[in-house]
Each structure stands twice: as C-alpha cells, then as structure tokens.
Design goal:
Layout: E1 2-4, H1 18-21, E2 36-38, E3 44-48, H2 53-64, E4 68-73, H3 76-89, E5 93-97, H4 103-117, E6 122-125, H5 140-165, E7 170-175, H6 188-208, E8 213-220, H7 226-234, H8 239-247, H9 258-269, E9 281-283
Parallel strand pairs: 3-4, 3-6, 4-5, 6-7, 7-8, 8-9
Antiparallel strand pairs: 1-2
Helix pairs in contact: 2-3, 2-9, 4-5, 5-6
Length: about 290
C-alpha cells in the first residue's frame, strides 16, 4: 500500500474544498512534493546482498515500512551491524550468512526464509560484484566470479523461490544495471552479466505471470556504494575523482544514491505497481536516454 502525506510548510492555508486536501501532489510557489511512504506491514521479504550498498538500503527501507525480513550476505560481522540498525528502527531481521554462488545454499536459504516468515511475498536480489577490465584484461577468475555472483546466484534464488511462489503469487526484483542495456567501457564481464540478468528476469516474467508472479529487473546507473568506490580503487583514482567522472554526461550531474534505488524497489514491489512485470525499470537520470 502506498501512503502519501501532505507536507506542512510555513504559510499553509487549509483549502475549503476537501477534495484538494486529498491530492497526492501539492503545488505551491516552491513546487513542493508530498513525501511518499510505503506500508508493507503484512509483507514477508527476502533480501540478498543485504549488508552493503543497495541491498542494505533496501533492507532498511523495507524495515521502516514494517516488513518482516530475512537477509543474507557473506559477512557475519556486517550482518550483525545490519541487525543492529534494523533493531534501532524497531524491527527485526533474521540474518543468514552464506555463499550465494552455491546452489544448495540458495535452495536452503529460500526454504529457511519461507519457514521463518511463514511464506515469502517479495524477493530482492541485490548481491553483485564488478571488475574494471576490458575483454583482454579480464582473467578467467574474474569472468567466472562475475557470472557466479551476478548471474548464477540470482538464478539459484529465483529457481528456488518460483516453485514456492506459484502457490500464492509474489514479486521478484533483480538488481541489474543500465550497463546491461547499453555497455559501459572497460566493464566487459559486468556488462555481460547484467544483460543476462535482464533477459533472465524477462523470461521468468513471461513464464510465471500466469501464477501471479511479477519479475522485474531494476537498472540503476552509477550508484554511490562501496562497490562503485571499489571500482575507483581498481582504476587507481580517488573517490572524489571517481564520483566526478561518473557524473560526467549525466543530465542531473551526479550519481544516484542507494536510498533512491530502494525507493524504486519498494514502489515496484507494492500493489500500486501491480501491472508492472518483465520490462526493465531504469533509474539513471536519462544517462542512457
């Protein structure tokens, strides 16, 4: 459910027409937009890659919206930190440490999440890695690692979830990239993997829509996350220089935040987006327009 609250500003005057009070977009001299919040109190959500970057922002956003969550990542220390931050919100999460490139772990992960939550309504696959390298520079290990984490892990989780979701429907959101739509220079393995995620999501949306399952690839542009900053390290440039370079050519002249991606994820998972499925949702400030 999508909830919209009217902002309170100095000089607000209550209108006589009550229908105006119910408008979701309040227009004044400052073009003020009503803040949007979400209600996921009855939702059961599994989030992968939840200890950092987009995954962590998504986990915190769902917790703030009241969802019951199971989260996973490779670091128990960062998992404990995530649990602590969610606890400060007044919610709890069950964190399961493990390796998503292992098909057996993914099967068990979904089964344990389903048992703990009493079912799964939403899955958000956020885990991913990036290597800054063209085809000649990409090692076998880098290629295989990229496909294992960015593609195989998503497939394993989705495969385990789809057979369970067929009973009652659900939503699967896979974090892809606008680099999967049109390639970025020097990211051969990453571009390839994200293109695969988009096509995988489309295929699943076509095959499982009859079971009331929506599958959507989310395609961000550059997002200020630890993964992006790690790419700057690979390129031997500072974070400041890297962010400035990433913003070049972007019409809004900046990179995206993880919280902005989380907001799109929550909208795509909500009932208000109930007819959205299959087609990539791009959030890159017209960078690939």
């Amino acid at each position: 459910m999508l909830l919209v609250e009217k902002p309170v500003t100095d000089g607000d005057v209550e209108p006589a027409n009550t229908s105006i009070q119910q408008q979701t977009l309040i227009e004044d001299t400052n073009m003020t937009r009503a803040p949007i919040s979400f209600d996921f109190n009855n939702s059961r959500v599994l989030i992968t890659g939840a200890t950092s970057g987009i995954g962590k922002a998504v986990a915190l956003a769902f917790a703030k919206a009241g969802a019951q969550t199971v989260t996973t990542g490779r670091s128990s220390q960062r998992g404990e930190q995530l649990c602590s931050e969610i606890s400060e919100i007044g919610q709890r999460t069950r964190f399961l440490e493990g390796d998503l490139t292992n098909a057996e772990f993914c099967e068990n992960l979904v089964a344990r999440a389903e048992k703990h939550l009493g079912g799964i309504d939403i899955i958000v696959n956020c885990a991913g890695i990036i290597f800054h390298a063209n085809a000649e520079q990409t090692t076998d290990e880098q290629w295989l690692s990229t496909m294992a984490i960015n593609v195989n892990a998503i497939f394993y989780v989705c495969r385990a979830a789809l057979k369970r979701m067929k009973k009652q429907g659900g939503v699967i959101l896979n974090i892809a990239s606008d680099a999967g739509l049109s390639a970025s220079s020097g990211l051969c393995a990453y571009n390839t993997s994200k293109g695969a995620v988009i096509q995988m999501s489309r295929s699943m949306a076509r095959d499982y829509g009859k079971h009331n399952i929506r599958v959507i690839p989310i395609c961000p542009g550059d997002v200020d996350t630890p993964m992006l900053r790690d790419e700057f390290v690979q390129r031997n440039i500072s974070s400041q220089a890297g962010l400035a370079d990433s913003a070049q050519g972007v019409p809004l002249n900046r990179v995206c935040t993880a919280e902005e991606i989380a907001s799109l994820v929550l909208y795509a998972a909500s009932d208000e987006a109930g007819f959205m499925s299959g087609f990539p949702l791009v959030i890159d400030a017209a960078n690939r327009a």
